Fold this protein.
Amino acid sequence: MDLVRQAGLYIHIPFCQSKCHYCSFFSFVPGVGQRQKFIAALQAQIEQAATLTEVAPLSFATLFFGGGTPSLLAPTVLAELLGLCRQLFSWSSQVPEISIEVNPGTIDASGLATLRQAGFNRLSIGIQSLNDAELVRLGRIHSREQALSTIKTAREVGFDNISCDLMYGLPLQSPASWRTTLAALLALQPEHLSLYELTLEKGTPFGESLQGGSGQIPEEEAVLEMMEDTQRLTAQAGLERYEISNYACPGRQCQHNCNYWHNGEYLGLGPGAVSGLAGQRLVAVTDLEAYVHRVRQGESVWIEQEQLESEAAFRETVVMGLRMTTGVSVSRLHARFGIDLVPYYGDTLRQLIRQDLLSLQGDRLFLTPSGLPLANRVMAELV
Ligand code: SF4
């Protein structure tokens, strides 16, 4: 019999009220009747997944409803989906971390209360900015006031583990504006922050209109100033940077995402969801109609299945682990893959250490403060 293996469970809700101008995630505005079809198919997929031989040895430590905008579904439906997952899968603790992403303007006080009562115990709120002009430019559907009131209401209904997403390096954003947004958010004492620099993705309105220098994207110097302000303000507020873009109060790191960065196992349900099980990467069909059809027929929704060979999995684990400020453990990597990191990377590693981008102290290899802003360059050499 297989040993029980700990894993994360992810549920993808692919709907958004409108598409933000920078977003390349798999999400779309639902058409007539699509929500009902999706909910029925997702329920059926949860039931089917619970019987899969790949899933039988797994014990789930975390559950994450992401998207898209999960809060576009009725809170009672989300509560039922959570109940189904809790009932049908094995859990490694009585009170696992159960997160849900919500967007201001899509959920009210009674909806938040329903989610809390149903057992969601971590809320991830997509704020992005607290400047109304910036929010309009991003194509967000909410205002500063709505964002602030969502956080306050979440507290009132009993959420004591709140994460907020913000973005910097936005079109026409000044360092002063970023400081104002960040300080106003920190004043509400969120337990966790995800702070991302805007990237211009192909196929998005921003990717098309701002690529190649429109003069709207802040200069590198201004972005560096924003990064420095971020370090200072988050540290003053008692939040510790534990991953390239993530900051948390002690003990409030996102356990679900830490599992990804440790390259642990995870099951993703819903269209477009990715799973990583027993060294295999599995990708579900993104087309909603095809997803619904396959689930109804009892067919697999996975359209891509890739078995990573051990060396590739080792390199992936190193690169993912270096995203965390504590980095990777050389001995644990050796125990897991039978590969000795230092001789394996040889001169490449020595060079990165000499350039003060990586540091090897005792058993741990991690990005230095000067390596963190250049993480992509470092990882490109190790992947
Ligand atoms: S709400 Fe989130 S997932 Fe939806 S379009 Fe905006 S950024 Fe993308």
In short: The CA atoms of residues 261 and 320 lie 5 Å apart. The chain has 14 helices and 15 strands. The domain at 5-261 is CATH 3.20.20.70 (TIM Barrel).
